[in-house]
Amino acid sequence: MSTPRDEGAGTKEVDLALVQEFMAGALQKHGSLVDEPGLKPMTMAVIAGNARLSPVEQLDIYREQFWLRHIGSLRDDYPSLVHILGDERFEDLCRAYVKEHPPTSFTLRDLGDQMASFIHAEAPWKEDHLLFDIARLEWAFIEAFDAADAPPLDASTLASASEEAWVGARLRLQPSMQRLALDYPAHELRGRVRAGEDPERPPAKRVHVVIYRAGLGHETSTAAERATLQYIEVDAMAFELLEALAMGAPLGPACEVLALAHGVTDSAAMEARVGGWFQQWAAYGWISRVDFG
Predict the structure, then answer these.
(1) What is the C-alpha separation between 138 and 133, in angstroms, rounded?
(2) What is the largest CA-CA distance in the chain?
(3) At what angle do helices 251-261 and 236-246 cross, to 10 degrees?
(4) Phi, psi of 39 (to 5 degrees)
(5) How far is the C-alpha of 190 from the C-alpha of 199, rounded, in Å?
(6) What's the rounded Cα separation, in Å, for the pair 203 and 190?
(7) Is 28 exposed, middle or buried (0-12, 13-18, 19+ CB in 10 A)?
(8) Strands (E), the chain
(9) Are 48 and 55 in contact (CB under 8 A)?
(10) How far is CA 209 from the centre of its chain?
(11) pLDDT digits over 112-152, tens only?
């Protein structure tokens, strides 16, 4: 690779892999590069400089822009983390995160995909489970927004199904559905932050939340309606059944396992409960298809 001309030194050839390693290391440094020892020779080999700025000063501008852009992107993706941590502590989190998970994609959309697992594993953030729940929730909204579409449920395919067929039926859920079991009501916090409020830290409370794109259950829904993200809290049994169905379990056996786990012995009551859930899920557009047999 031909590199810019060094003053009085002629054109140098520098190995591309070496340049990439050098640039990645320099851009991810936290402090100014201007007084960094040992940077000058390699920097002059890959950056020309100009009448106003030395090569190292130019590289330091790139470093500042790297952090501004990447922290700004994470700030957009995780506003509730910003609210809980504050600007300075959130920036500390971002710098540690990017050091551990440097960008590997051409798009900043993927930059924060490991944030929840990072928080869960790394001190001091792992000590606060609210941060983990917030990170999971915020990323679930991103996944729901970008998920593929599946055709809406064709209700006519259900009319002729026998009771026996329903026992072995497998429900195919919309890809946008994100299901989270949380130890804190992070969805309530997020809603208030997005509304411009200044909510306090919520107390711990076990909740089950489904995030999805609205309108997918209706063929007549507009593109704007299909892009609208919704979330709803569901009870623990409904959540467990959704999880089992999402894993491909047939409806009948999944309901039997659920009833046994929760000590439900009245089969008629269980059927009525599941029937009510099914109607709600179909209305929300969560079910794309029901496969019989």
Answers:
(1) 9
(2) 89
(3) 140
(4) -80, -25
(5) 9
(6) 14
(7) middle
(8) 170-173, 178-182, 207-213, 229-234, 287-291
(9) yes
(10) 15
(11) 999 999 999 999 999 999 999 999 999 999 999 999 989 88
Find the length of the chain.
Answer: 293
Q: Roughly how many angstroms between the first and final C-alpha of the chain, as a whole number?
A: 61
> At CB < 8 A and 24+ separation, what contacts does 160-164 make?
161/290, 161/292
In this structure, the dihedral spanned by the alpha carbons of residues 190, 192, 193 and 199, taken in order and rounded to 10 degrees, is: -110
How many helices and strands (H and E) does the chain possess? Answer: 13, 5
> Would you say the pTM of this structure is higher than 0.70?
yes
Query: 46 and 4 in contact (C-beta within 8 Å)?
Result: yes
Nearest to 258 by CA among 271, 248, 88: 271
Ordered DSSP codes for 125-175: GGG-HHHHHHHHHHHHHHHHHHPPP-PPP-GGGTTT--HHHHHT-EEEEPT
Q: For residue 283, what are the contacts with CB-CB under 8 A and spacing of at least 6?
A: 217
pLDDT in tens, 162-181: 888 999 999 999 999 999 99
Element (H, E) at 246: helix 236-246
At 19 the pLDDT is 57
